[in-house]
Design a protein that fits this description.
Elements: H1 18-23, H2 28-37, H3 53-74, H4 80-120, H5 127-177, H6 182-187, H7 190-200, H8 203-210, H9 213-232, H10 234-281, H11 283-288, H12 292-341, H13 348-390, E1 401-402, E2 409-417, E3 422-431, E4 436-441, H14 447-454, E5 459-467, E6 471-474, E7 483-484, H15 485-490, H16 497-506, H17 510-515, E8 523-524, H18 533-546, E9 551-555, H19 563-577, E10 582-586, E11 598-603, E12 606-611, H20 613-617, H21 626-630, H22 632-643, H23 680-689, H24 694-701, H25 706-740, E13 749-755, E14 758-764, E15 774-777, E16 780-783, H26 787-833, H27 836-841, H28 844-886, H29 890-935, H30 937-942, H31 946-998, H32 1004-1045, E17 1071-1078, E18 1088-1095
Parallel strand pairs: 1-5, 4-10, 4-11, 6-9, 9-10
Antiparallel strand pairs: 2-3, 2-5, 7-8, 11-12, 13-14, 13-15, 15-16, 17-18
Helix pairs in contact: 3-4, 3-5, 4-5, 4-9, 4-13, 5-8, 5-31, 7-29, 8-13, 9-10, 9-13, 10-12, 10-13, 10-28, 12-13, 12-26, 12-28, 13-32, 23-29, 23-32, 24-32, 25-26, 25-28, 25-32, 26-28, 26-32, 28-32, 29-31, 29-32, 31-32
Amino acid sequence: MNGEIKMKLVNPVKNANFLSKLLFGWTIDFIKKGAREGLNNSDLYDTLDSDKSRYLGDVLEKNWEKELNRAITKNIEPSLMKALSDTYLIDFMIWGLVYFVQFVIVRSSQPVVLSYLLLLFNGVNDQENRTEKYLMSTLLVVLSVIVVSMYHHHCFGLAKLGMRMRIALSSLVYRKMTKLSQKALTATAAGQVVNLLSNDLNRFDQVVTVLHILWIIPFQLALITYFIWREVQIASFVGVMFMVICSLPGQCYLGKIIGHLRYRTALKSDSRVKLMNEVITGIQVIKMYAWEKFFEKVINAVRYDEVRDLTSNSYIRGVLISFNIFLDKATLFVTIITYVLLGNVITASKVFTMAMFYNVLRVSLCLTYPLAIRYAAETLISIKRLREFLILEEKQATEYIHEENHHGICLSNVTASWTEHDDIKNMSLDIPHGYMCAIVGEVGAGKSSILQLLLGELQLKSGTFSVGGDISYASQEPWLFSSTVRNNILFGQPFDRKWYDRIVEICALKSDFNQFPQRDQTIVGERGVSLSGGQRARINLARAIYRKADIYLLDDPLSAVDTHVSRHLFEECIEKHLRGKTRILITHQLQYLQRADLVVVVQDGQILAQGTYDELQNSDIDFTEMFLVSGYDRGKAEEDETNIAGHARSSKYGRFSRSGFSRLSHLSDISCSDVNVTDNEITKEEVAVLNNKSAFLEYLKAANNKCLVAAMIVMMVVAQAFCSANDFWVAFWTQQEHLRHSSDEKGHIEFVTLSNNTTEYYTSTVSPSELNDLVRVGNSIHYLLKTKYFIYFYTTLVAAAVVTTLVRSFGFFKVCMLSSINLHSSMFHALLKAPMYFFETAPSGRILNRFSKDLGAIDEMLPEAMMTAASVLLIMLGVIVNVAISNQYTLIGLVILGMIISKIMSLYLSVGKYIKHLEGSTKSPVLSHVNTTLKGITTIRASRATAEYTRQFDELQDYHTSAWYLTITFTSTFGLWMDLAGIIFIAITTFSSVFLQSVNVMETSLVGLAISQSLIILGMCQHGVRFTAEVIYQLTSVERVIEYTTLEPEETFEISEKTIVSHSWPNEGRIEIKNLYLKYSENDPPVLKNLNFTIQPGQKIGIVGIVSVSSNKRHHPHRRSRY
């Protein structure tokens, strides 16, 4: 019905060799094209057979049905988790084993090898020793290659597994949705199903990649504790316990506070967005009464209340981010101090081995483990919600006698209901073949329930009924899906030109087609042009009539059209074209009842009377009284057809230029759930704005506090300087301790004193920790500090690093909150000043997007991404400085690394924005299809199109899967390439350090510092690039908000204080119009021309006009709404 989606490009991974798969080389052509020409939907590869929605849905559905049968047999609740385990547990555990090997064994081997390498530097520097050093260095580099290769491939594999679970569950949810009973559908809002598919199921993409850490971390913790214990004995337990206590309970407690604040913030954000929706909906009234200042105060007050919780939330997130930065350094400090105070001596091998182990633990305990806990908790809630949905009541098989010979309808003592209350009570009705039966009654009498019963939607409680032949159904609420007008009429039926033209003519659509931009190929529905209620009703009727059936159920198809159109539809379509067919027509149009073969009067779910029109007229029942209550539909229809018609204005906000088709405003129908719908125009904005580098500066300027911004920038540098100084001070300390405990053959240390310009040498047996003098080791003289001074200064540096890191986080989030507050205030102020033309041309959903999605990104996502990116980049800068100071030859590696990373980052940003756009643009049709299906579920079932719609859903899922597969492949590809570039730097640092130490140019402590710091870069580069890219993507929200702060304002409406108005004014309501011209914008032709009239006080004026005449615009000049 929507047309098949064809992806012609074969996925190159099918034909890739082992090396290409290992290095993701098969993506090179795709990346080249994206960087050179950009990407669009035609560049997507065909979905792999193992990832097809239909296949995955079939497998999971089979296991779910087994679980349902097991639950029924054992009289227990069915478990969705059990069905998922039966389907995916083996694959999940295989990747878990890979994760274990990489995370526990291989990664923990790197510090062990580094420890052994540093110990070699304390040995005899002969040829054998040098060879062993180079072998250990090579092993360290090889282990790094293995770590990054296993890491990115296991992440890629788990991401694919999570994707398949999401696809299978999405298919299962959709299939269930098409089977739900009307009772269950009534209790299930469209937003709930969309929320399941867009939010709940997305948890599986996230949780699968980190869930294994929950069972792996005890093994990793035990192994790392053992290795640290080998180095520092009892001090290891102090250090590990310090890290565990600070990371797990501390983060859990802060996480609970964040969750509470996030919940409160969400409620307040929803309240603000709902209020914004009301402001946009009633903007004409607001401008008419000049209430802008009042509503600005109201919105700003709500916003202020929201920002208070946002600020508290931001500060706590700042604490968590700071914890992640300094926790490993603080833990190393606690361990070293404990070890030294117990009377031990630190060495380079001990210190830098522990530093690497604590860095590994930090990633696990502070980053991965909290994420796993959070995602697991959220996923369990999602699984519960999914299970509750999947066990909802299904539509039962229709229990009626199907008689194909008589093609009529017969009800015998039928009682049926939606709920416990009976909607149809003991009803008996016989409609012979070929009869036109008109059903009338008050609103809520049960007329539509009769049709729902015949369609099998209403639950039968007692009695029987028979239906002869196929049914075609036209719903009371016109339903259109997003496609062409022709597809909406055909609805999967073969196209017959002669039959189609006949249907178009009898449904009075021919003149409308002539006015549509592309005639019957015009797109309608959610993504298409807006139609009037009458046009929608006639297309809806044409769909039912085009389908060749024996019985036609027409639920009030005439109420949305005006009188002459209604007469045409009844005479040409219902009466003439369908003559000989069994027809049930629900109507409020009294004039057509006398032409029906049978009239049924329904009241309170019962048949009050039935017979011909004349028979009912002669009865004691005055059924025409019902039309005094129900006849409002008719008047509404005439108003709808007349007042809806207007001009589709041409502007940068409009979709089409002027034409004759009607335009219907849906401002009042926008709900808060609509604000997340992003159209293609917005997406194009996102892609285009990525090149605007001024957004970041504008964001900082929005804080409107230059001193605070400058102080924040300085504090970020200072905090990183203290963190880097910690590492360097520890290296210096280990070097001093090595000198302090160097001894001669007698076990004594030779010291030097300077007096009278002469040098004296003597030996001493004092405690090495108390030495504070010059000492000669070999032919070199070194100055020593007492150990306690190292402890004091080390403590000062750690405390300074902790304090400045926290202060910079608070300062940073304070700047972000100020920017967010000021941007919102400026945007809302500019919006209220905008002319009415803006509101009538810009979709309300887009305006709400600015105040919901974009502002939400500025409030929460952008600050966290910026803080993380800045922290990562500063850490990398600190690492580079430390390594360069330790080993100047690494500057060569830095130049090489910088060139490679610069190129990879350029590709990542340029190609990433297109892939992000493709993923978003292919996701929207899936959710739109679900929404469309829910709205038209009765029509879909009545037309036996459920299987076809399920096939379309699977196709749309495959379409999105193709883009999502590229997304996770692209992420893994650039992550691997970035880390491999980092390994080049590690190799240069390691081998050059070994060489320099071998020729006695570099101290052992500096070797340890250089190598251990260079290993930190492993993984750091890719995270820095990813978060930098995320910042750039999120800055598009800033750009769009800033765009709204510069909206062209309307002319001033405030009265000058110098204006003198009589105290008696106004004393009469007299309006005089002279030579009035009205147009929508300065560039448009006038819609009202040379209007002249006078309305005297007390007069009542009615404005009338034919379709396409702007009679409803004549009151606009009295509002500030036109030029």
